[in-house]
Each structure stands twice: as structure tokens, then as C-alpha cells.
């Protein structure tokens, strides 16, 4: 196990090859949230800053936890060789679609339908470990279901549907998007 103060070129190359990552957050009195993420939604902005695009889904726990606490861990693990686990520990913020700064962040990502917010993480430390216990697997293909769902949704009906989702599953407040990005 090794710790680093920032991302190296090797870390960035490893991240770029991974088809999936995991995000963990927590807030006092709330459940620990752990979410798998995929698609082309993660970017290294510089050696100390990363961001990922969040599409509307079943909940908004990450946003609620970051507003309450700010701590976030992102994990990448190799499912091929060489084995490696890479964790990014940091403090996260979010920019909801329609808010100032969203468009400037969104340009780093594909124009997926259903873009809800961008999470930006200021890295405090980077950790690598062996990953020898992680199985070898092969990516068959990305799922198109979430993007297809949003592409087929009526924007007005979608915004109406999520308008009441102002609380996380543990009752923490969340900011709901009020516009569909162009």
C-alpha cells in the first residue's frame, strides 16, 4: 500500500482505462452510501482535482452527504492485469444542472441525456494497493438503459416527477434540478 499527495501520470492512465468506479460518502446519522458508476463520466481535471458527471437516477445520496459532510472516496479497481486498486480521498462539491458553473464543468463530458449535476472532488490523498483479491473479468459492453430512459422522457414530466425529491433516503436536504441541460 502506498499513499500519494496527488495523482501521477500513471494513476491518470490507470483511471482512463477503467470502465467502472465506485463512490462512497457518509454523513452523521445517515447510512453510508456506496454507488457504482460507469459510462464515460469521470475526468481528471488536474493532479489534485477530479470530477464526474451524474445522471438522474433512483436517489441523490451523494449530493446530500456532500452538503452535510463533504467527505468522499472514489475507488477504481482493475479487473484485468496488472491487479491494482486506486482510491481517491477528498472533499466534494456539486453543481446542479442549471446552476452557475454547470455548463463550464459539463463540457468535459459527453452530452448524455439526463445530466443532473457534476461532482467535483479536491483530492486530499491517493492510495494504491495490490488488488490481488479482485477477480479478473472482461467488460462485455456498457448498458444503454439509463441514457435511453432519459432520451425518451418528456423533460417537463421528468422535472415534475423529481420536483418533490428534496430529501435523501435519510431525510437530508438535496437541491433538485429545475432545468434540463441543452
Q: How would you describe this protein?
A:
With 182 residues, the chain is α+β, with helices and mostly antiparallel strands. The protein has five helices and eight strands; from the N terminus they run βαββββαββαβαα. Strands 1, 2, 3, 4, 5, 6, 7 and 8 form an eight-stranded antiparallel β-sheet that branches. A hairpin with a 2-residue loop joins strand 4 and strand 5. The protein is globular and about 45 Å long.
Helix content: 10-25%
Sheet with the most strands, sense and barrel status: 8 strands, antiparallel
Distance between the termini: 44 Å
Strand-residue fraction?
A: 25-35%
* Backbone shape: globular
Task: Write down the overall mean pLDDT.
Answer: 95
Number of helices: 5
Low-confidence stretches: none
Order of helices and strands: EHEEEEHEEHEHH
* DSSP strand count: 8
Evaluate the radius of gyration.
17 Å
Question: From the helix content, strand content and strand pairing, which structural class follows?
Answer: alpha+beta
What keywords describe this structure?
32% strand; eight-stranded antiparallel beta sheet; alpha+beta; 182 residues; single chain; 21% helix; 5 helices
Provide the fold topology:
Blueprint: E1 2-4, H1 9-17, E2 21-25, E3 33-37, E4 42-46, E5 49-55, H2 61-68, E6 71-77, E7 85-96, H3 102-106, E8 115-129, H4 145-152, H5 155-162
Antiparallel strand pairs: 1-8, 2-3, 2-6, 4-5, 5-8, 6-7, 7-8
Kindly summarize this structure in a few lines.
This protein is of the alpha+beta class and 182 residues long. The chain is built from 5 helices and 8 strands; from the N terminus they run E-H-E-E-E-E-H-E-E-H-E-H-H.
Amino acid at each position: 500500500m502506498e499513499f500519494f499527495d496527488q495523482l501521477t501520470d500513471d494513476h491518470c492512465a490507470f483511471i482512463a482505462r477503467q470502465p467502472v468506479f465506485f463512490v462512497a460518502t457518509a454523513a452523521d446519522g445517515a447510512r453510508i452510501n456506496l454507488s457504482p458508476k460507469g459510462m464515460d463520466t469521470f475526468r481528471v481535471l488536474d493532479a489534485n482535482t477530479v470530477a464526474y458527471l451524474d445522471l438522474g437516477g433512483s436517489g441523490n445520496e451523494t449530493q446530500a452527504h456532500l452538503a452535510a459532510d463533504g467527505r468522499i472516496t472514489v475507488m477504481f479497481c482493475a479487473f484485468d492485469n496488472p491487479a491494482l486498486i486506486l482510491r481517491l480521498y477528498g472533499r466534494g462539491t456539486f453543481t446542479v444542472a442549471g446552476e452557475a458553473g454547470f455548463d463550464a464543468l459539463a463540457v468535459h463530458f459527453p452530452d448524455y441525456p439526463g445530466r443532473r449535476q457534476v461532482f467535483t472532488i479536491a483530492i486530499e490523498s491517493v492510495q494504491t494497493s495490490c488488488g490481488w483479491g479482485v477477480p479478473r473479468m472482461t467488460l462485455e459492453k456498457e448498458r444503454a438503459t439509463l441514457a435511453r430512459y432519459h432520451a425518451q422522457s418528456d423533460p417537463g414530466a421528468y422535472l415534475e416527477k423529481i420536483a418533490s425529491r428534496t430529501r435523501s433516503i435519510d431525510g437530508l436536504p438535496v437541491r433538485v434540478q429545475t432545468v434540463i441541460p441543452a
